[in-house]
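Much of what follows relies on a compact textual record of a protein's fold. Think of the row as the fold of the chain written in a discrete alphabet. An example makes this concrete, so a full record is given next.


***
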Amino acid sequence: MNTPFLRRAFLAGVLATPSALLVTVTTTPASAQMIVKDPTNYAQNVLQAARALQQINNQITQIQQQATSLINEGRNLASLPFSSLQQLQQQVQRTQQLLGEAQRIAYDVQDVQQVFQGRYRGAALSGTHAEMVANANARWQDSVGAFEDALRVQAGVVGNIDGARTAMDRLVSSSQSATGALQAAQAGNQLLALQSQQLADLAALVAAQGRADALESARTAAIEAESRERFRRFRDRN
């Protein structure tokens, strides 16, 4: 009779063991939390990290763009290392000096009026024989001096051509190798200054040549007027 009782007790213990193990596993919260991972939280953490990394990359890109902009601004503000201003000013002063050394009749309105009144018109063409000869000689000297002045100005202008060519070559080279907007603008301004200097030389050349031609024309007109006066006197004498 004891055997069936022991068998039932043993079976009851075996059946009870898995339940006890399950409870042990499930009732051990510390061990369970260490090995369990939540996929949802992990994905969110990865996404946040990716977004943070993207923001950092964007900030780095902005800093790089700002640095590039500052570098470009620095280049745009850099001055041109070459300046032809002093050379151009010297050439203009040289031409002005040649014009200022005009012989006999200066480039002055009042001087021209006084000289023409004394040697080219009025009493200068109808005075005594000696006065007419003296005025004719003075007019001839005016014309010779004016043509000499024109030749000197022409020589000065031709002498400036070589300096202008050198300056133009350096300015064009500086413009092509300019690293910024300011250097390019300064090279362009100096090229305009060079053009202005050449135009000034051309104006001086035209003025000097025109002065010589005008005085020669005035001398020719005075000769004709004197010839008519001499003929009148000869006719009246006879």
Q: What stands out?
A: The radius of gyration is 53 Å. The CA atoms of residues 82 and 110 lie 43 Å apart. Helices lie at 2-26, 29-35, 39-76, 85-100, 109-119, 129-176, 181-237. DSSP finds seven helices and no strands in the chain.
